[in-house]
Every structure is written in C-alpha cells, then in structure tokens.
Design goal:
By secondary structure, the chain is mostly helical. The chain has helices spanning 2-6, 9-37, 41-67.
Length: 68
C-alpha cells in the first residue's frame, strides 16, 4: 500500500489493478475450496456466485491492464 500511496498516473493505475486482480484471485481460490469441500448448500451457492463474478472482474481488469 505504501508503494501505491507514492505512485501517480499510469503507475498508480497499473499497481491498483494488479493488486485488485490478486485480491480477487484469492476470493476465487477460497470459493473454489468451498465448492470442492463445502457441504452447506447456501454457502456453496454463494461460492458459485463469487467464483463467477470475481472471475469476470479479473478478466476485465486484465483487459484494462493490457491497455495501459
């Protein structure tokens, strides 16, 4: 976060998007574990939703990273 605080312009954008991708990849990993190992239906449904939405956001952010 300190590096982000000191960044500006394109460097800031690239750092923020990179950090957000990593953050969302962690959420997808946890959701995948719930889908694989979980037993409680509502939690598995939430995990499926998280996996889907976060994967879409990751793809969008990676596209943005490719343009800056």
């Amino acid at each position: 976060m300190a590096m982000l605080k000191d960044a500006g312009g394109t460097a800031f954008d690239r750092m923020l998007l990179t950090m957000m991708v990593e953050h969302r990849e962690g959420a997808v990993s946890m959701a995948t574990a719930e889908l694989r190992d979980g037993q409680y239906g509502p939690a598995k449904q939430l995990a499926q939703s998280i996996q889907s939405s976060q994967s879409e956001e990751i793809a969008a952010m990676k596209t943005l990273l490719g343009t800056i």
